[in-house]
């Protein structure tokens, strides 16, 4: 029986402002964290997010703005925090890779990598020259085959030719063990298509070793390599380690309690690093692998990847301004099934809002509370206990919970909205206003009670997704006197 839940998002690069892609991952993590807090208790859930603050691109952007990289990262990191606050994201910790607490542990981890041998008895780390094409936009080396018209397809810029000394991580020696762990679902990679892709990658290619450091002259903004002052740590050891440095690896209580992570969320762009580099690092440290990597789809805008360099970024702040945090989360999560790649259709949001929130949930709340106020003087005749007893009416909640645990958020919401529609239809069909006219009090009260129980269940099922809305509805339904809300929860927009 699982009694703790540790969930992580990637730590986002500070060279980009928070956009709806980052928001999607973070909202999913928030929904799951809220769900498991209810199930396991607040103390048994840990939700980590943060920002990835080193690298060439950060130094470049800071120089452009004529500020120090630290100042630059302070600004953008704060923008991520602000965006999450506006979206009502309740994380337990926000780690920044420029923090001392992170850097100190990364240095320990590097020293461990340096001292350890691979299963085949080789040094894990070795020095060599690296030659290749490097895209500063991606912060990674890129192959000829990946170029389109001589440019990085994502950043529309020409890669640089690089020859330099790097320290390398001998990845190849770990691949057999990683393959075994993935095949046995000891490290789950979900959805199954992504697992297949990773296994294909291990089987097919001669996976190159990866750089863990680059010369100071190429990467000025980073953690010093402890044994070679001419080198700075290069992204992945620094970035991936955040998942354990934030917990205080190796000896802090949080680490003991929460590692291994239950769910690590990410998109396809960084799957290779999480599915191959990360397990290899953990194997050197001789600590358990995460239980699962969960790969969601990539939002595209008109078929193109969203990125600052392409100028097609959708900001979650704008959506929150227009719809509020609750509805924004609903609109984002109800668009895609987890794992599917699709175009985001921001233009459909107003119609969806009016249909689902205004005419659906909002209408149900208004008419039901209005009738209870009008016909029963606000006294529905159900105690809080009665309502609690009605929980899981027709297995509704357990059904939704199962969908959440399987990361089928779109389906969970669809099922909740099906019930909302059904109750709205039942009201139309049973015409309670006629029962009131004919003085059929008994039948009227029974119907209103049934619908109240359903609305109560709907509110509870919404808690992980729309916590404020859920709380608001529960407050209305458990008040001494049920009253129609003075202001509608979801005003119509034109
Ligand atoms: O890769 N659609 O940071 P990053 C959906 N710092 N999700 C998206 C998205 C989109 N268009 N764009 C970004 C990095 N994401 C590294 C990670 S982790 C140790 C280091 C989300 O700012 C998605 O989760 O590029 C993706 O994997 C992540 O942001 C990449 O964020």
UniProtKB/TrEMBL annotation:
<keyword id="KW-0547">Nucleotide-binding</keyword>
<dbReference type="InterPro" id="IPR023457">
    <property type="entry name" value="Met-tRNA_synth_2"/>
</dbReference>
<dbReference type="Pfam" id="PF09334">
    <property type="entry name" value="tRNA-synt_1g"/>
</dbReference>
<dbReference type="GO" id="GO:0005524">
    <property type="term" value="F:ATP binding"/>
</dbReference>
<keyword id="KW-0648">Protein biosynthesis</keyword>
<dbReference type="InterPro" id="IPR014729">
    <property type="entry name" value="Rossmann-like_a/b/a_fold"/>
</dbReference>
<comment type="similarity">
    <text>Belongs to the class-I aminoacyl-tRNA synthetase family.</text>
</comment>
<dbReference type="InterPro" id="IPR009080">
    <property type="entry name" value="tRNAsynth_Ia_anticodon-bd"/>
</dbReference>
<keyword id="KW-0030">Aminoacyl-tRNA synthetase</keyword>
<dbReference type="InterPro" id="IPR041872">
    <property type="entry name" value="Anticodon_Met"/>
</dbReference>
<keyword id="KW-0067">ATP-binding</keyword>
<dbReference type="GO" id="GO:0006431">
    <property type="term" value="P:methionyl-tRNA aminoacylation"/>
</dbReference>
<dbReference type="GO" id="GO:0004825">
    <property type="term" value="F:methionine-tRNA ligase activity"/>
</dbReference>
<feature type="domain" description="Methionyl/Leucyl tRNA synthetase">
    <location>
        <begin position="157"/>
        <end position="368"/>
    </location>
</feature>
<feature type="domain" description="Methionyl/Leucyl tRNA synthetase">
    <location>
        <begin position="6"/>
        <end position="156"/>
    </location>
</feature>
<protein>
    <recommendedName>
        <fullName>methionine--tRNA ligase</fullName>
        <ecNumber>6.1.1.10</ecNumber>
    </recommendedName>
</protein>
<keyword id="KW-0436">Ligase</keyword>
<dbReference type="InterPro" id="IPR015413">
    <property type="entry name" value="Methionyl/Leucyl_tRNA_Synth"/>
</dbReference>
<dbReference type="InterPro" id="IPR033911">
    <property type="entry name" value="MetRS_core"/>
</dbReference>
């Amino acid at each position: 029986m699982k009694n703790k839940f540790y969930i992580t998002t990637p730590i986002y690069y500070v060279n980009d402002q928070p956009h709806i892609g980052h928001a999607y991952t973070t909202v999913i993590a928030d929904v799951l964290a809220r769900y498991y807090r209810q199930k396991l208790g607040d103390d048994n859930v840990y939700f980590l997010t943060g920002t990835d603050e080193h690298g060439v691109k950060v130094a470049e952007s800071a120089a452009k703005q004529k500020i120090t990289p630290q100042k630059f990262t302070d600004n953008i990191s704060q923008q991520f925090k602000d965006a999450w606050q506006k979206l009502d994201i309740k994380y337990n910790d926000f780690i920044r890779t420029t923090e001392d607490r992170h850097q100190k542990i990364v240095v320990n981890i590097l020293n461990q990598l340096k001292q350890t041998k691979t299963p085949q008895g080789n040094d894990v780390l070795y020095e060599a020259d690296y030659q290749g094409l490097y895209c500063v936009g991606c912060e990674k080396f890129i192959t000829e085959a990946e170029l389109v018209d001589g440019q990085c397809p994502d950043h529309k810029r020409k890669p640089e030719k690089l020859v330099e000394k790097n320290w390398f991580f001998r990845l190849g020696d770990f691949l057999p063990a990683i393959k075994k762990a993935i095949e046995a679902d000891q490290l789950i990679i979900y959805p199954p298509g992504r697992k297949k892709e990773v296994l294909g990658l291990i089987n097919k290619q001669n996976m190159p070793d990866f750089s863990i450091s680059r010369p100071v002259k190429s990467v000025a903004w980073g953690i010093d390599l402890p044994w070679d002052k001419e080198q700075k740590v290069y992204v992945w050891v620094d970035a991936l380690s955040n998942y354990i440095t934030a917990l205080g690896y190796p000896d802090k209580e949080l680490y003991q309690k929460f590692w291994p992570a239950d769910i690590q969320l990410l998109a396809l762009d960084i799957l290779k690093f999480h599915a191959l580099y990360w397990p290899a690092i953990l194997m050197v440290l001789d600590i358990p692998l995460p239980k699962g990597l969960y790969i969601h789809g990539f939002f595209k805008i008109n078929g193109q990847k969203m990125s600052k360099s392409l100028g097609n970024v959708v900001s979650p702040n704008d959506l929150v301004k227009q719809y509020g945090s609750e509805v924004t989360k609903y609109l984002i999560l109800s668009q895609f099934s987890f794992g599917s790649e699709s175009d985001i259709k921001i233009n459909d949001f107003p119609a969806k809002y009016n249909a689902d929130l205004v005419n659906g949930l909002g209408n149900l709340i208004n008419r039901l509370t209005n009738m209870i106020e009008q016909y029963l003087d606000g006294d529905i005749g159900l105690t809080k206990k009665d309502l609690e007893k009605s929980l899981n009416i027709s297995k509704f909640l357990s059904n939704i919970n199962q969908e959440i645990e399987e990361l089928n958020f779109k389906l969970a919401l669809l099922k909740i909205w099906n019930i909302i529609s059904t109750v709205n239809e039942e009201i139309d069909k049973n015409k309670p206003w006629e029962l009131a006219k004919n003085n059929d009090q008994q039948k009227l009260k029974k119907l209103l009670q049934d619908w109240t129980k359903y609305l109560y269940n709907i509110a509870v099922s919404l808690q992980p997704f729309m916590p404020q809305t859920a709380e608001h509805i529960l407050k209305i339904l458990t008040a001494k006197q049920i009253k129609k809300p003075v202001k509608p929860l979801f005003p119509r927009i034109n």
